[in-house]
Amino acid sequence: MATVKLDPAKGVQIPNLTTTERNAISSPETGALIWNTTTSAINQYNGSAWSAVDTSTDNTKLPLAGGTMTGDLVTTSIEIAATNSGSPFNVLKFTDTDTGTAPNQAVGSIEFNSSDSGNTGVGAKIDAIAEDYDSNMAVRVFTGDPSSATEKMRITSAGNVGIGVVPETWQSTRTALQVGDSTAVWGDVYKNSWFSNNVYRNTSNTESYINASYAQTIYMNNGGTMDFKNSASGSADAAISWETPLQITADGRGLSQFTAKAWINFNGQNTVAIRDSHNVSSITDNGTGNYNVTMANAMANVNYCVTAVSGRGGGEDMHALVPQSNFNFTTTQFRILTLQSWDVAHDASYVGATVFGD
């Protein structure tokens, strides 16, 4: 039978048992103590089970397997480690058991404090905040002077990020990064992207003003085009009416009222040949000094403008005309006539034309 030994010179010796011997004790008394020779630790019976009693004085460790800890833990470092055997696990977890969590209520935080003289207080903080009554949470980051750290970034439950601003409530298929009061970079599930000033897409899927001011955006769609848009000044949250002064197509064409829709430089003598061009598919030699130019992409209507020039070696005076009537002037084709002295048709070694319009 195990006994308690008292030796004034050596101290008190409680029963020494292996784990197997300990577990074989029939109906141990609550509060019973033994020295577990298997684990080299004091074990105590709590009325239902044996557990190790930690007598460590090493204040660099936190020997808690569970339970509640109150007060401050003062140490130079804390290491929290876990081994994942293939199943999900929590390394560090905050739980708010308040069933009445309300919007904008913080439910947990990690704070970084400075205790230097003159710099006491929270210098940085990360917390989680309730967005609504449905357990949707946002994460906030605070930095700044320890005495007055302020929110610098927020990540919403929808994945939208605000830097220096609380992000707007965006339409669900959009994910956005907002920087400051107006700048936003955002995309959608269809692989379209936007870089915008003073624009967000609200829950009704309408592009709206963030603030009362002008708005601009560059829209890059998954088909390869880029639209440069702007609008007049509007009020916060109002719908935006856009104008698109410039579009760059996937093949590199710039579509606007101030960019040429097509141009060509070709040799009109002998076998006609295009030297260089933009949005021109072909030229046709109709005879002496008579050429048809066919555009690769059609104009919106026939109310466009063509300017043409011509010349050839020897210093001869050459002119180029672009007749409209009776010469097959269409949304995809126009005719150029090259003349000498205004009335004699001549082939020109240099012919150029530029097209502006819708």
- Tell me the helix content: under 10%
Rg, alpha carbons: 40 Å
Class derived from helix and strand content: mainly beta
Report the end-to-end length measured between terminal Cα atoms. Answer: 106 Å
Number of strands: 29
- Kindly estimate the percentage of residues that lie in beta strands according to DSSP: 35-45%
Low-pLDDT stretches = none
Characterize the biggest β-sheet: 12 strands, mixed
Strand order of the largest sheet: 7-8-9-10-11-12-13-14-17-18-19-20
| Count of helical stretches | 1
Question: What is the average per-residue confidence, as pLDDT, rounded to a whole number?
Answer: 85
Q: What would you call the shape?
A: elongated
Number of domains: 4
Taken in chain order, the helices and strands follow as: EEEHEEEEEEEEEEEEEEEEEEEEEEEEEE
Structure characteristics:
358 residues; mainly beta; Seminal Fluid Protein  PDC-109 (Domain B); 12-stranded mixed β-sheet; 5-stranded antiparallel β-sheet; 29 strands; 44% strand
How are the SSEs placed, and which strands pair?
Layout: E1 5-7, E2 11-13, E3 16-17, H1 19-23, E4 33-36, E5 41-45, E6 50-53, E7 106-114, E8 121-130, E9 137-143, E10 150-155, E11 161-163, E12 174-179, E13 183-188, E14 193-197, E15 199-201, E16 207-209, E17 213-220, E18 226-234, E19 243-248, E20 254-255, E21 262-267, E22 273-278, E23 280-287, E24 290-295, E25 305-311, E26 318-321, E27 333-340, E28 344-345, E29 350-356
Parallel strand pairs: 3-4, 11-12
Antiparallel strand pairs: 1-2, 4-5, 5-6, 7-8, 8-9, 9-10, 10-11, 12-13, 13-14, 14-17, 15-16, 17-18, 18-19, 19-20, 21-22, 21-29, 23-24, 24-27, 25-29, 26-27, 27-28
